[in-house]
Design a protein that fits this description.
The chain folds into three domains: 58 residues, Nucleic acid-binding proteins (OB fold (Dihydrolipoamide Acetyltransferase, E2P)); 63 residues, 5' to 3' exonuclease, C-terminal subdomain (DNA polymerase, domain 1, Orthogonal Bundle); 50 residues, Helicase, Ruva Protein, domain 3. Helix content is 43%, strand content 19%. It is globular.
Length: 198
């Protein structure tokens, strides 16, 4: 297994980052929050999880080890594959997920695209004794300027499957929360909450 990847960020797309490692470009599937912390040309180290399928090898990259562990843990629940696991890490921080499971908060889990009420109840039931208590870790604000956060949040929403028009409305709805130093990951989560209420 590949535990982490360190290299120069060669390219960024809506859903992945390409890191150049020893002359080889490795594509890592990442959440919008993780992608927001990366800049083309900079050096980066990302914890990774490799998902092996009969017809593919997919490498997922994470902002930290805690997010990676959550991604791997939620896949042990019935009916949760890598795509839904990545959606969970995109919408909920590790501590938000731990709190939701500890408090039987089905509503919070159903904000994740691909998880319905029964799926949320199953995740709570199967992971409650294994997920642990919130760690209190806080994610640092992504270093972005004025308007680039809008593009990043918009691209993240579209990458997660929301229609372009809905994504634009959600970005406009969370714009007042941006402040002087926008936290792209927090704004993305807020936009997803807006969309789940609609």
């Amino acid at each position: 297994m590949i535990a982490f990847v360190r290299g120069r960020v060669a390219a960024l797309t809506l859903s992945s980052a390409v890191l150049e490692v020893g002359g080889v470009g490795l594509e890592l599937m990442c959440t919008p929050g993780t992608l927001a912390t990366l800049r083309t040309g900079d050096s980066a180290t990302l914890p990774t999880s490799m998902v092996v399928r009969e017809d593919s090898l997919t490498l997922f990259g994470f902002v930290d080890d805690d997010e990676k562990q959550i991604f791997e843990l939620v896949q042990t629940a019935s009916g949760v594959g890598p795509k839904v696991a990545q959606a969970i890490t995109a919408v909920l921080s590790p501590d938000d997920l731990r709190r939701a499971i500890a408090s039987d908060d089905v509503k919070t889990l159903t904000r994740v695209p691909g998880i319905g009420q029964k799926g949320a109840q199953r995740i709570i039931l199967e992971l409650k004794d294994r997920i642990g208590a919130p760690t209190g870790a806080r994610y640092a604000a992504a270093p972005t300027g004025g308007a680039p956060w809008r593009d990043q949040v918009h691209q993240g929403l579209v990458g997660l499957g929301w229609p372009v028009r809905d994504a634009e409305k959600a970005v406009d709805a969370v714009a007042p929360e941006a402040g002087d130093v926008p936290d792209v990951a927090a704004l993305l989560r807020a936009a997803l909450r807006t969309l789940s209420k609609a």
